[in-house]
Design brief:
2 helices; alpha+beta
């Protein structure tokens, strides 16, 4: 009986320690923050994080401009922003972008901008306040 209690204690301690390294979703590596344009939250915007080796990870903003990217590539990240509406099939006209996504200045729609962040792993925050 004593051995069973000891084993359960060790198992519980291991689960607790593992839980401390990740968030509620179980993901340990998360980049999150808020995107604003001139101080106004940007909703329905796709944020693409591009790692030094070209690997990409994507997140979407919610109605308050908050985004979350799970398991982004590590290293010096570059970012590209745009509409979360996927491109239409060939021959089909694209719908207009969501209102806030349409307000993203053109220079942020490519990765050739000043938005960079050194992601080293774990949970990190990077907020964007884009200038028009």
């Amino acid at each position: 009986m004593k051995r069973l209690v000891s084993s359960l204690f060790i198992l519980a301690a291991g689960l607790f320690a593992t839980g401390c390294e990740s968030d509620v979703s179980g993901v340990a590596n998360v980049l999150s923050g808020t995107i604003t344009v001139g101080g106004v939250p940007a909703s329905e915007v796709t944020l693409v994080a591009i790692g030094p080796d070209g690997v990409e990870a994507t997140g979407l903003t919610d109605g308050t401009g908050k985004y979350r990217i799970e398991n982004p590539p590590k290293g010096a990240l570059r970012f590209r922003l745009g509409s979360q509406v996927p491109p239409p099939p060939p021959g089909v006209q694209a719908p207009p972008p969501p209102p806030d996504a349409a307000n993203i200045p053109a220079k942020y729609r490519t990765a050739k901008n000043e938005l960079t962040f050194e992601y080293t792993g774990g949970k990190q925050t990077y907020d964007f306040d884009l200038k028009k």
